Structure formats: structure tokens, C-alpha cells
Amino acid sequence: MILPVTFWFEFASTYSYLSVMRIDAEAEKRGVQVIWKPFLLGPMFKAHGWNTSPFVVYPKKGRNMWRDVERRAEKYGLAFNRPDPSDPRDFPAHSVLAARIALVGLDESWGKQFCRNVYVAQFANGEDVSDPVTLTRLAKSAGAEGGIIARATTPDNKFRLRTQTEDAFAANIYGAPSFTVGEELFWGDDRLEDALDWALR
Question: Residue 84 is part of which domain span?
Fold first, then answer.
């Protein structure tokens, strides 16, 4: 039996951008089902006493991360433009609303394309993906209809995202992207293929 792979991602995560843009093609090659799960890293950061990403807290780590993502994006043929390093508001992006919209979209037919749109807007085009106007445009471009902001910000949907984030921590997830296959946890874009291959064991 081929196990499904659960894909945990955060919209503020640079490495999640790389995985979101290629996971479907890699999964299709192997005939593996992927379950997409947006969650929030902010609560985990707070648990460690950080008020921002560890890539900001530890500048040497951050500098290496940016160069690493540039190399990997080039390898995959993906556009990548680093957010303005002189503006601390640019990274990490405030990702709550994008994640709430993604939950709605992933219940429908446009969710995956919306996720890809958000990552491209942020990490290729330099757009502000915390802006409701920008997110509405990206959702409509993916095929969303109706009042998407209103649908995404209902109490029930807010609770869903909070619960999904708690589920991620219960699964011992500590970073994004992460992939779970049964009880196995794989962390990082460079473990995407390993996770998909494990599902075939």
C-alpha cells in the first residue's frame, strides 16, 4: 500500500516556496497522494522565546539561508528575489490571512494554485502577501469566487488554522516545509524526494 504524504508548509518560509512549486510534479511521477496542510510557525518561535524567524535572530544563519535558496531556486528553474533586507517588515511576512484563505481553497479546486500564486508573488515578484487586496487578487486568479476574505475569516475557519497548527506541533514538526509519512517525519525542501520515496516502501 502506498502511504499518503502530508505536506506541512508556512507562507513565510523560503524553503516552502521551493517545495510548493515542485511537489505535485514529483508526487505524480511516483503515484503518491499529497495532503497539503498550511500552518503557522509563529507560535513555535514564541515557545523558543523568539519574536521572529531564527534566520533573523541568527544573522550568519540567515545570510547562508538566502544564498542557499538562491542556489536551489536556480537549480529548479524558479525565479527568486530576496525581500528588501533593509526593511525588517519584509521578512518574515505576516502569513496568517494567506493561510486562512488557503484552507478555504484547499477544500475547493483552487487551493493549490492559490498557494503557488502567493509564493511567486512574495519570493519572485516582491509583493506584500499580507495585504488583503493582493491576496484577493491571487485567489481570484486561482479560481476563487465570492467574498474570499469574509469566508476565510469566519470564527470556524480561524479555529481550523489554530487547530491545524496545534496538530503540526503534536506531530513534532519544528520547521517548514515538513513532510510526514505515517510516523516518519522529514524536514526541509531537500527531503521532499526522500519523503515521497518513503511512501512507496
Answer: 5-198
Angle in degrees, CA 99, 175, 16, rounded to 5: 55
- How many domains does the chain divide into? 1
Element housing 49 (H / E) = none
Q: Per the confidence metrics, is the pTM higher than 0.85? A: yes
User: What distance in Å separates the CA atoms of residue 186 and residue 195, rounded to the nearest whole number?
Assistant: 6
Q: Are 179 and 5 in contact (CB under 8 A)?
A: yes
Domain holding 28: CATH number? 3.40.30.10
Separation of alpha carbons 49 and 47, rounded Å = 5
More confident site: 57 or 186: 186
DSSP 160-188: HHHHHHHHHHHTT--SSSEEEETTEEEES
What is the rounded CA–CA span in Å between residue 103 and residue 150? 13
Cα(111)–Cα(13) distance, integer angstroms = 18
pLDDT in tens, 75-131: 999 999 987 655 554 666 789 999 999 999 999 999 999 999 999 999 999 999 999
Cα–Cα distance for residue pair 65/78, rounded to 1 Å = 16
Q: In this predicted structure, what is the pLDDT of residue 63?
A: 83
How far is the C-alpha of 104 from the C-alpha of 100, rounded, in Å?
7
